Amino acid sequence: MKRDSRLSGVLHLLLHMAEADGPVTSEALAGMMQTNPVVIRRILGGLRKEGLVQSEKGHGGGWRLARDLESVTLYDIHLALGAPGVLALGNRTESPGCLVEQAVNAAMSDAFEAAEALLLERFHSITLASLSRDFSRRRKRNASTCDQHRH
Amino acid sequence: MKRDSRLSGVLHLLLHMAEADGPVTSEALAGMMQTNPVVIRRILGGLRKEGLVQSEKGHGGGWRLARDLESVTLYDIHLALGAPGVLALGNRTESPGCLVEQAVNAAMSDAFEAAEALLLERFHSITLASLSRDFSRRRKRNASTCDQHRH
DNA sequence: TCTTCATGTAACTTAAAATATTACATGAAA
DNA sequence: TTTCATGTAATATTTTAAGTTACATGAAGA
């Protein structure tokens, strides 16, 4: 079962946008993410609907953050990505009338909900600003050996 | 991102085996799971390596539980299935030198680990016996309207 | 105005992964 | 010695995610 790294990838994009002076093109972002510009535009198009980023066409155009770094949590971004399920495991639902399946699902659902709630609670407490601060800290720490972050 | 319902499915199989008098064939189990007998044999073959089930060939053969219901937890079964990742979300690892990625991953890893630990802890506390008792309870409750669990 | 650049989006292709199927060998019971 | 069931490799199918192409829309600059 493969893991969905879109949230991680989007955070990557947003922090790079936060670092930049002006708008960043989908082509530049695609370079960082080693993917196609259209993929970037699709993802960021979704975030724009939620008011997290804005885009401009034409010369000097591109993407920029639309909100303050302090006000955006991982949870906001998770929602903007469509709130995909956070767990890789799930219940069977092929035999809803089977009492065995009902017993199994009841027991597992409790555990699943607890884990999911904990993860989302953590997401609420992490802001783009806190990530940005951590990045700055790392940059200073690494300044002697490497003055720029690279792709 | 599709969810892995193997654990749920295996519990279904094991509880049905617990209910049965003698060995149950992979064909019968495949009928319950609406899949192919070979798929069942592959899955149960893995569990046999861990000592959870045993199989017999030939006439009257099939699969049966190898351990006491009280002694088997969901965690044991999860391990026997190869301990697949429990989270659907994960970190990007395409640019390990990028400090942005490092900051993002550090923050998310904490949250991921906490959620995973909580889920696995819950798995430790659920035994096949407790599921079986819950099933019996449901069967009694439903006795008036339906005397058998069906597929 | 007209060329250039960038987004917006639909349609399509490719790639990867999970799942299912076929085929046949092994071994046990009737 | 026939039947039945597991054991397992090889293959095929299905499903899902990701990437690509193509072209329309609109903004800035020459």
Strand content of chain A: 5-15%
Q: Using a beta-carbon cutoff below 8 angstroms, give the protein chain pair with the largest interface and the number of residues from each chain.
A: A-B, 62 and 62 residues
User: What is the CATH third-level topology name of chain A?
Assistant: Arc Repressor Mutant, subunit A
Q: Could you give me the name of the CATH homologous superfamily of chain A?
A: Winged helix-like DNA-binding domain superfamily/Winged helix DNA-binding domain
Low-confidence stretches of chain A: 146-150
What's the CATH first level of chain A?
A: Mainly Alpha
Oligomeric status of the shown chains? homodimer
> Main beta sheet of chain A, described?
2 strands, antiparallel
- The CATH architecture category of chain A equals Orthogonal Bundle
Count the beta strands of chain A. Answer: 2
Helix content of chain A: 40-55%
The string of secondary-structure elements of chain A, in order, is HHHEEHHH
Shape of chain A: elongated
Whole-angstrom Rg of chain A: 19 Å
